[in-house]
Design brief:
280 residues, mainly alpha, 77% helix, 0% strand, globular
Length: 280
């Protein structure tokens, strides 16, 4: 679901502005989870401190990264966007070291982070070359996608600290807050009633709301609580591969040699950062 979201993002932003895409998927995701909750006889918690946590997670884990990635994918291919997301585990390693007990930085993790950073620079070098002469859109778009990955890293650590139980309520609450915050921005910025989405864009937004937003958010909180943020971040071993496969086979994208080389370096960095843990 996460790996496929880059392809559906690319299809969505083809005819729908990014803010409207994000507001739409958040609203669909929130309504889906609300129906699931009420169907199971559950209710959202009363307003209190927990809603502050939901608001923080909703912004950092949903509204902001969804928008950054969707905005960047107006320029960035879905395959390259998926590869850039592979930076998430590396950032999570650093953040978890400072706030999660037992997630310490070792020399292997430092070396892995350095290798992965080289991979990110390698990935973005072609865009940097294109930006020479004032055309900075490619590099800014890639930085936006990378910013989304960093948001996910921060959110994975925060979710471990703030959400202990009741994953369905946490998922529903965060999506609901994110949708409430994103909808006014989309209305003011995009005037969505003037948008004429294609059938592919409309269907993609619906799926983004149900699959990668609603269902995946429940799985996300459950994994964060049971396995921890670092393990959760390793899902990015698979997401780039899925994104590249779908982008190449279904959208006809052709990532350059630098994209595959950058992905190889990033995945080698992740593997190196987990070396001692794997041997243990």
């Amino acid at each position: 679901m996460w790996g496929s979201s880059f392809m559906f993002n690319k299809l969505s932003v083809a005819t729908v502005p990014p803010a409207t895409v994000v507001a739409g998927r958040l609203m669909i995701g929130a309504v889906t989870l609300l129906m699931l909750m009420y169907g199971r006889g559950l209710r959202l918690p009363r307003f209190g401190p927990i809603w502050g946590a939901y608001a923080l997670l909703g912004v950092i884990g949903n509204a902001l990264p969804f928008f950054l990635i969707a905005w960047g994918q107006q320029v960035v291919d879905s395959a390259l966007a998926g590869i850039l997301m592979a930076a998430m585990p590396l950032a999570t390693l650093v953040l978890a070291h400072f706030v999660i007990q037992g997630e310490t930085v070792t020399r292997y993790r430092v070396a892995g982070f350095a290798l992965g950073f080289v991979g990110i620079v390698f990935l973005m070098e072609p865009a940097a070359a294109l930006s020479v002469g004032g055309a900075a859109i490619p590099i800014v778009a890639q930085l936006a996608v990378l910013g989304g990955a960093l948001c996910y890293s921060a959110n994975s650590v925060l979710a471990r600290l703030l959400v202990k139980t009741d994953f369905l309520s946490a998922a529903t609450g965060t999506l609901l807050v994110a949708a409430v915050l994103m909808l006014p921005f989309a209305i003011l910025h995009d005037r969505p009633w003037t948008v004429r989405p294609s059938a592919a864009s409309f269907a993609s937004i619906v799926w983004l709301g149900i699959g990668p937003t609603a269902i995946a958010t429940i799985l996300y909180f459950r994994l964060i609580s049971s396995a921890g943020p670092t393990f959760m971040s390793l899902v990015n071993y698979l997401s780039p591969a899925v994104a590249v496969f779908l982008g190449v086979t279904l959208l006809g994208e052709k990532p350059g040699v630098s994209a595959y080389a950058g992905l190889t370096l990033i995945l080698m960095g992740i593997a190196l950062s987990q070396w001692r843990r794997g041997r243990a």
